[in-house]
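Appendix B.2, paired examples.
Example (i):
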Amino acid sequence: MKKLGVLSLAIALALTAAACGSTKTEGVKEPAQASPGGTAKAGGGAETGKKTVYPLTVKDSSGKEFTFAKAPERIVSLSPTETEVLFALGLGDKIVGVSNLDDYPEEAKSKPKMGNLQGNPEAIIAANPDIVFAGLSLNKNSVAKLNELKLNLFQTNPKTIDEAMERILLFGRITDKQEQAEKVVAQMQKEKQQVVDALKGLKPEQKKKVYIEFSPGWTVGKGEFLDDMITLAGGVNVASDLQGWKQISEEKVIQQNPDVIFFAKAVPDLEKTIRGRSGWDKIAAIQANKVIALDDNLLSRPGPRITKALADMAKGLYPDLVKQ
């Protein structure tokens, strides 16, 4: 059942990310630009030190504007990523509902379930949330339905690891958890920098070509956090001429001849599928047995643990350089 859930999440990520289109990462309404611990004005609100002063006006990734009179007291999350962020900020007691796929941290499993990644409107209404956080997997029909019900739907869409960190800081401002948000981001920045430092001597000609498959037949091109992760890990994405989440061309992968193939380890028989494709036995990664499993949850969730996934990927590519 868990494997099926992971597969559903991966497929939903692919199918709906493209439908969402390219939207600017969520952020504080201009001209607010605050560095961690700093002060910023946001519409009718302001932040002083570590405390948010309300009303606070921000925009989500769709460009929708929100004004918060106070920190939300009842929160629903429709995405495992958002749920991880909220728990990392110490908001477990404020969370009144999560998606059926939310499994981290352990406490998330006991929260009331709000349906699949598209949400169950009846369950959400019954939870009486002040705000509903959702991510990439929410399709247009679900967005329209939740908006029709006058629910405060706040969508996020980080495209890079840095934007994932910005989202955490934003959630910290919205929920008056700025200090905790800064602590989480500081640890992520440390983990990212360790990878960057370990690979700083890598020459362009030494960088390995990478193919990644997170669901049968699906890979990722430019403009998504997984492509950013490959680049930061010192790899060259063989699908970088594509945009977003795409179905693979088996022939193209053979032509690109990646040095390393990464795959989502909990997807049933995915490694067997990859190794068994016609002509793929000639690919350098398969000949060198560099077909490497990565943790599905870390791989698919641009949340607080995404820099741990970055370290795992970099270590898979360059085990002699990355020791963490």
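Example (ii):
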Amino acid sequence: MATLVPLGTASSYGVLANTAVTNTGLTVVNGDLGVSPAGAVTGFPPGTVTGTIHVNDAAAAQAQADLLTGYANALVQPVTATVATELGGTTLTPGVYNSASGTFGLNGTLTLDAQGNPNAVFIFKTNTTLITGATGNVNLIGLAQSSNVFWQVGSSATLGAGSTIRGSILAFTSITATTGAIVDGRLLALGAAVTLDTNAVTVPPLSTCSVVVQPVAGPVVAGQPTSVSAVVTCNGLPVSGASVTFTGGAVPVKATTNLAGVATGSLTFNTAGAATITATVTAAGTGCACTGVVSAPLPITVTPQPSCQVVVQPVAGPVVAGQPTSVSAVVTCNGLPVVGGSVTFTGGAVPVTVTTNLAGVATGSLTFNSAGPAVVTATVTAAGTACACTGVASAPLTITVVLQAGPLSASPACWRVNLPIPIPHLFVATLTATVTPAQAGVTVTFFVSGLPVGTAVTNAAGVATLNAGLSLLQISASSYTATATVGGVPVQATGTLRPCFPPA
């Protein structure tokens, strides 16, 4: 898409040359006329200039510098289409055009159709020349504007007698307008002279000041400052030092444009929902009528204040007293994971602090010293996120801690008097050991006071039972021991031994 070529101060010139401006006849230039850096102006009078004639002064030098900027801009704009060398008899829509031959000729009518867009831009680029014949004419329709038509000429332009050209000719070398040629635009030569002969050159109305609010980067969050910016231009060139007021937030904010014409401020929106941002120039030292110019409103959507959430995950498997238990929690901000957050788990013997991963999950290990109910809580102690996460705690997770269970356990037992008293056992006790998980056929040996009292084999439920005879010495012991080999590993368990009640 073609964009407006910035001409800066050169935009006020109907004629601008490098070495000389020469005129024959009653030429009328409606605008400024200038030459720089070391040229001369002749033929005025009889020619007339409605603006100011600048000969080798600072204004003309600046205009030449701005012209060079505009020429370079037109030169690098991407070509939309390559068309025939002869433009007469054709109709073109907005775009950037060149020809395969590298030159353009105009012998007939070229119609430029803006299709209802008064800001539509047309750019014609030649490597060498632009030559119009006596019947050459440019016709504008569909709200096309001569101020938006540009001819970037690689060497020289020649306008035929009586032809009509519309738009600004930016020639790298020279421009010659022969007798009676009409220019609705500008004749601007970078490298050499402009030659005139009874011509009419009318500068199009100067572009006005433009203020454009830039799209906002990232989400706009209620209650949080949002960076906003706007670009202020005059004739396509940045306006520096302009005062710009942004409105739409809770409080208007003022900012000043930098060398690129960009003003940057910060607005805060107190409520979520739809909002608009507008930028107004309140002061600007520029030739454009910038003061009071207002941008088009930029619609935005304000999202609610972020909310942080911490959820402790259910614990997998049994929680055994004295053994480390893996615990985890998920930290999210508005449903998205919080990465790198510091989370402290409490509820075990010692708190533990860990960091969330890319999924927002923090995983640590707690040890519970005693059996029974326990409560696990996760608290965010630090988080680099837009959410106010620090200090947010999860809902407590209640778990049940169980005693450590080995592969062999001994049940409580009691002894009683063996009546009627046989010999040799005065006392008897039923000793029971269980293999977990259940395993049949395991031989269990039972000891009381360090002395073996017998063996038993586990049944299908993993239970081995022995009715053991005990001596007077053995009943004074308060416990018994069961030993076995489970899975090739020797194991043992101890059970209590108390008098039965009644003891007989």
